């Protein structure tokens, strides 16, 4: 005779893997020595800067910008590099020696150093990006030291998507000084541009973005935004043309109705023995 216990202890059901395995915040990078990269924001934000970097004081053929590209900064140690999230250069052709896309930006083989660099703060990179942690003598200089002392980049911008804090520094007398914002923007008169934080939708994602403006504060549209704006203007112009035609038809109809009424009135007067042409 078989025996079945009336009570069998049951263990707790296993937790789903998304509650026990590391999250995207625990695994921010495929390079443990370079935390914080890559992620979606580090792709989209530099893309918006790239698409809207259009200095008004320079020939577009002599404007170059790049994102996540190795920036080699000293011929004394040619293998050392930094990788800015985004940088812009003026006075440099888009193609290296007018021939090929760049594999990297080698400063001693280019006619100009970057004019502006943007770093996007990530967990683990803030101390280096802001120069809080100084490099030791046996290690390469940090980003702040390279941009300020070696390359002497005129404008250095740091933006955090976590706090939406924008920090800007300008090279003054060989060292960086904080920049006071004007109407929430960083003015760069040498470029005819300004840089500020903008609330809006880019690639269907609505949030605060860092983007380029004119010196007067007008948004510089990305190509897709320009196309949408042009389409909207065409639709408005088409609607205005239809409205104008309808107004012309309405005016013509009213004139014809007034003419018929005048004719009917004149005929009625004639039936009454009154010559309408003699009425003044």
TrEMBL record:
Residues 239-280 are annotated as: Disordered. GO terms for molecular function: endonuclease activity. Residues 23-198 form the Putative restriction endonuclease domain. Keywords: Endonuclease, Hydrolase, Nuclease. The keyword Nuclease applies. Residues 239-259 have a biased composition (Basic and acidic residues). PANTHER family: SLR1095 PROTEIN, SLR1612 PROTEIN. Pfam families: Uma2. Coiled coil: none annotated. This is Uma2 family endonuclease. The keyword Cell inner membrane does not apply. InterPro entries: Uma2 (IPR008538).
């Amino acid at each position: 005779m078989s025996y079945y216990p009336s009570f069998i202890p049951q263990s707790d059901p296993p937790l789903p893997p998304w509650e026990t395995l590391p999250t995207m915040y625990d695994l921010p990078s495929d390079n443990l020595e370079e935390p914080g990269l890559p992620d979606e924001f580090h792709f989209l934000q530099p893309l918006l800067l790239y698409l809207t970097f259009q200095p008004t004081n320079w020939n577009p053929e002599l404007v170059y910008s790049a994102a996540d590209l190795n920036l080699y900064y000293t011929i004394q140690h040619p293998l050392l590099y930094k990788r800015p999230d985004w940088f812009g250069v003026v006075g440099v052709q888009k193609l290296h020696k007018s021939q090929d896309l760049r594999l990297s930006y080698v400063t001693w083989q280019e006619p100009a150093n970057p004019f502006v660099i943007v770093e996007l703060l990530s967990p683990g990179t803030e101390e280096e990006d802001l120069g809080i942690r100084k490099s030791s003598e046996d290690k390469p200089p940090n980003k702040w030291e390279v941009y300020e002392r070696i390359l002497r980049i005129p404008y250095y911008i740091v933006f955090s998507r976590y706090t939406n804090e924008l920090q800007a520094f300008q090279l003054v007398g060989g060292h960086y000084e904080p920049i006071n914002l004007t109407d929430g923007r960083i003015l760069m008169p040498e470029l005819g541009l300004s840089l500020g934080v903008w609330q809006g939708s880019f690639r269907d994602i609505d949030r605060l973005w860092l983007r380029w403006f004119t010196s007067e504060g007008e948004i510089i549209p990305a190509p897709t935004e320009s196309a949408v704006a042009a389409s909207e203007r065409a639709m408005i112009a088409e609607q205005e043309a239809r409205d104008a035609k309808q107004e012309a038809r309405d005016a013509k109809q009213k004139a014809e109705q007034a003419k018929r009424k005048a004719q009917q009135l004149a005929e009625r007067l004639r039936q009454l023995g009154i010559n309408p042409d003699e009425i003044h």
